[in-house]
Amino acid sequence: MDALEQKQEEVNAAGAQVRALKAQNADADAIAAAIAELKRLKVDLEKDLNALKEAGNAEAKAKEEFRAKLGQLLEGRLFYIPSFKIYGGVAGLYDYGPPGCAVKSNVQQFWRQHFVLEESMLEVECPAVTPEPVLRASGHVEKFTDLMVNDVVTKDCFRADHLLEEVVEELLRDPMLKADRRRELEDLQACIDELNVEQMSAALKDTNTKAPVTGNDLSEPYPFNLMFPTQIGPSGAVKGFLRPETAQGIFVNFRDLLYYNGGKLPFAAAQIGQSFRNEIAPRAGLLRVREFTQAEIEHFVHPEHKEHPRFAEVADTVLSLFSQDAQLGEVKKPFPMTVGEAVSKGIIANETLGYFIARCHLFLVQIGIDTNRLRFRQHLKHEMAHYAADCWDAEIQCSYGWIECVGLADRSAFDLKAHSDKSKVDLVAYERFDKPIEETVVEITPNKKVLGKAFKKDAKPVTDALLALSEADAFALQDACAANGSAPLQTENGEQQIAADMFTVEKVTKTVNGRNYTPSVIEPSFGIGRIMYCMFEHAFYIRPDDEQKTVLRLTPVVAPIKTTIFPLVNDDKLNAIAAEMNKMLTTNGISAKLDATAISVGKRYARTDELGVPFAVTVDHRSVTENTVTVRERDSCGQVRVPIPEVPGLLGRLCKMTVDWETATAGFEKQATAADE
Amino acid sequence: MDALEQKQEEVNAAGAQVRALKAQNADADAIAAAIAELKRLKVDLEKDLNALKEAGNAEAKAKEEFRAKLGQLLEGRLFYIPSFKIYGGVAGLYDYGPPGCAVKSNVQQFWRQHFVLEESMLEVECPAVTPEPVLRASGHVEKFTDLMVNDVVTKDCFRADHLLEEVVEELLRDPMLKADRRRELEDLQACIDELNVEQMSAALKDTNTKAPVTGNDLSEPYPFNLMFPTQIGPSGAVKGFLRPETAQGIFVNFRDLLYYNGGKLPFAAAQIGQSFRNEIAPRAGLLRVREFTQAEIEHFVHPEHKEHPRFAEVADTVLSLFSQDAQLGEVKKPFPMTVGEAVSKGIIANETLGYFIARCHLFLVQIGIDTNRLRFRQHLKHEMAHYAADCWDAEIQCSYGWIECVGLADRSAFDLKAHSDKSKVDLVAYERFDKPIEETVVEITPNKKVLGKAFKKDAKPVTDALLALSEADAFALQDACAANGSAPLQTENGEQQIAADMFTVEKVTKTVNGRNYTPSVIEPSFGIGRIMYCMFEHAFYIRPDDEQKTVLRLTPVVAPIKTTIFPLVNDDKLNAIAAEMNKMLTTNGISAKLDATAISVGKRYARTDELGVPFAVTVDHRSVTENTVTVRERDSCGQVRVPIPEVPGLLGRLCKMTVDWETATAGFEKQATAADE
């Protein structure tokens, strides 16, 4: 029980005391004293509650200010902006402007390098427009829904869970709430995402949830499919959807991909592309949008051999794990553990899943996600689909809370089996046994000649019925025929009388060299936009000396360009050197941008800081006389003077992140920070 | 008149002669002789017609065989495959498999390098889901249609122009066709793409076009919109479409992009992304699909200053130009001309358009398009939109004919004006005059005090009417008031009597420093899939010595990987060197793939040839003793022995295409072609 709850109990006890004294007709002084005590306790509780509320308000206000400042930078510098702005925009649709586009391209390129190329994955590109049967097989047509409610008067649409969440939060903010009701609401709050229609309906009534703004009654909740519907072709007969994920394109191509891979397992296929979700009420900027870039991997593996050949390379990676036990335990906090230990202890289900969790961790850290605000949360039993063997989300903390940015799931054979069932095409791999095995099977052999003679055109149903008999039934029929000369058999065309000479049943031993099986799939699925937004939050800061100086601490891997080049003043000689420098860096694969605008270097530094450019090269008068330039690092604002021919090498090393600034520049002349900075 | 037409005329003449002789009751021998001559001429004509038909059939068959072989390679090696194949596929939707995905990524990356980075364009990424008003403003909701007809019995849908085209072709194949009817049909054939509803209806009737297969009557033609429709949000109230082109995303962001560019013109924005067209009857593989990648540039420029600062760099580029005059002239053939001459002669409208045509030519040639099968065709006057200043298509010849792969248009101010009109947001740039100019304007100044007193609450409409007067009307009113003391004025609330003291009119001279104007836009628009398909056709050949050996002559720029690495036999030492080689090349940015499968090197070469890999490194026993490997070039099959440390340098030079194979390998030991090749 926390301090507040205790005080609440004391107030309740004091109230009871006053009532008891009054009921007993006690001494007036005693009653007065009890009332005074009750008042004192109430005032004290009130003070605590106000302080709590203010602290909450202050925190909320700080977050809002932070987001406003970051948003000002990101939208102002066109990292991203609401789409179709001149037409009033559309919720949940965003454009990436030039620097955002460059950062996104870098994130995707690094993802391709880190996963696809490093592991020789098979990359594919499939269309977004998808015919209905594919998404019916995958379960999306039936189950990819959110619960919706309408304002019964205005008909406005709302997500039921959003409304319920807000009301429950509001109710929980009431300090006078009874303890058992509080527990009830807290339990509800924990599972709002997973309520079915009936549970949601009950919860909305229980909490007396009304439409926001109008306060009108709400309709019963009902499922709304989140896929954008469309029609393929002119007749309107072929129903389609925009894909809600890129994964299905890989599953339906499994057979061709397996063939391309020489029939060998394991292998992984990958796809980067747009996915679409027609969210009911998009909010939270890039975190919940209607069109977004996904990068998905489907790693196909033998269901009984989920070891990974490169697991040893990542086994020592320390992860922040928020396992099922940790979530259900007393402390409810993630713990650090190497992935090797987590797999060996069975916390993570298998090596391949563990391998991808570790590789995902390494990817996120290298693009600039703060490890202290990154955790891997295991899905609880009731969150997981029945077929899933294990499932973890990479969650990144930002001002909106802990955000699911990557899903890593062992989906067993579900997807391939689902598509195989619906398409009637086998999606299996073949395994050759180490040694051929002997298998005893029961063989039923209909005697076609006798059957044909006896049943004429009805011979086929009889034959089919014979072949469909179970082992036990076949022998029973044989025994009955042996005993009675003939016996009845149920066929498609009714019961028929079967004679002993119409078939034989025998046990046969066969040599089997291998078998077909449906592979398991391990699926790491990345939401590029969400990761980018969290990355921007982690990269954003304000220089302590100046409220106006905002900076994006983007790593060289993702920065939109690696360096800017400034001629100190507008001078032909300086401009020529700067242009030469620009060409030299670009040729060496270091993306650079020349900024020769006639404003102070300090202002140009500020501009480059906002774009997250890690380095700046300034050409000054000593460049002309000494053939040197200064190189500045964004975060430390450290500056060194470097001979021009050495600049590409220095920046190349720094951009590869193999060496830090202090070490890399140890041999160069340190420069004082420019006066105008 | 061609030889065939002449023979046809001779037959006609001989027929007339026979009829004439008969009418004259001429001598029987003379008639017999005339009949014999007619027969001879007919037989001769028949022979020619059959030869022509056979030649046509042979050509068609050769094309089909070529396409079948190429298709076998491209689909067999998963360059691309029909999407959702296990569900029977959907016409016009294709997946790129691993090598296709790599080639596509290389084409796009090179496009980005050649255009976006080289010219510091502003790259953006906008959503595919687009609200209706945007596409209404652009004209797509009303005009982005194809004419459709239905089989009146089965209701099957067809593209009217496709059916008409087939029927016209069939009719023209009839050798006995009258000359004037032939000319009529040829004229129709030339403009089938551009018929409006009424013209199409007439043409279908005139040619007696019926539904294919069934032979049923057709409905009247009607326009079918080619955009995929969808709905945004849960209420169904917000209508949307999948974008039919990426360009609109740039236009609607013009204001922000101009601001980002410091308010300066000219500048270009670019976007690579998916576009969607719900084709009525997709055919011709990757050439006409329902979802495809576009790469578009919008270069914004002052309408009176379409010079380009870098034009001199491309002025000497020789293009194959199929200008309006060439198309309408006698010869109907493109001609070679430098872009410099074409612009100076006014054949290409301006330098900026010429610059992009030349850059487009260079791009296509570098990715492997055969210059002899590339031409730039100017749109004829009636093909061009009324607003377009000039328009050229890069057309590439393949087995389907000349295919429009890139459109290059000077669209003047149309797009920005259209969006400005509909969105009510100014999409303009500001130009500062070199010298401020003096402008004389007429100023009407209502006397508010007097008006207020006279008209009370009606003063506003009167004031508005005064301010809305033209210069001439204002002076006329002033004169009338001066003459008569007052004069009538038409206002929103009817006629009012205006007195002389209620307003003044005078000419004022003002200094104007600049003005707002709507920029022109020059739009190069690339269809990546079409270009790739033509590139594959140009790259495909069969080795003369073996029907089975098919090769893709892909340039190193676009090849899916640059080199394969083969250990000659499966041996630990060789495998180790091969692995080391692989790492060495990859580190040097040369994408490589190790192929250690236990099949002959010849077979492995054949496999790598089909994937279009330009080089192959073979590790053999001399690699162990001498530290050398052999390097093989795909098309010449030439092989040289190279010291291992020199391999990355050699391949690097070859992949940059700065030096040819013969020159690059001059210093190395030539190897005989392997026996098993």
Automatic annotation (TrEMBL), chains A, B:
This enzyme's EC code(s): 6.1.1.14
Subunit structure: Homodimer.
Compartment annotation: Cell projection, Axon; Cytoplasm
GO molecular function terms attached to this record: ATP binding; glycine-tRNA ligase activity; transferase activity
Residues annotated as domain WHEP-TRS: 3-59
GO cellular component, one term: mitochondrion
Coiled-coil segments on the chain, per record: 4-55
Family assignment from sequence similarity: Belongs to the class-II aminoacyl-tRNA synthetase family.
Listed GO biological process terms: mitochondrial glycyl-tRNA aminoacylation
Superkingdom, natural source: Eukaryota
Ranges where the Aminoacyl-transfer RNA synthetases class-II family profile domain occurs: 92-544
SMART domains: WHEP-TRS (SM00991)
Protein name as annotated: Glycine--tRNA ligase
Main localization (coarse): other
UniProt cross-references to Pfam families, sorted A to Z: HGTP_anticodon (PF03129), tRNA-synt_2b (PF00587)
Keywords of the record: Aminoacyl-tRNA synthetase, ATP-binding, Cell projection, Coiled coil, Cytoplasm, Ligase, Nucleotide-binding, Protein biosynthesis, Transferase
Catalytic activity reported: 2 ATP + H(+) = P(1),P(4)-bis(5'-adenosyl) tetraphosphate + diphosphate; tRNA(Gly) + glycine + ATP = glycyl-tRNA(Gly) + AMP + diphosphate
Organism: Ostreococcus lucimarinus (strain CCE9901)
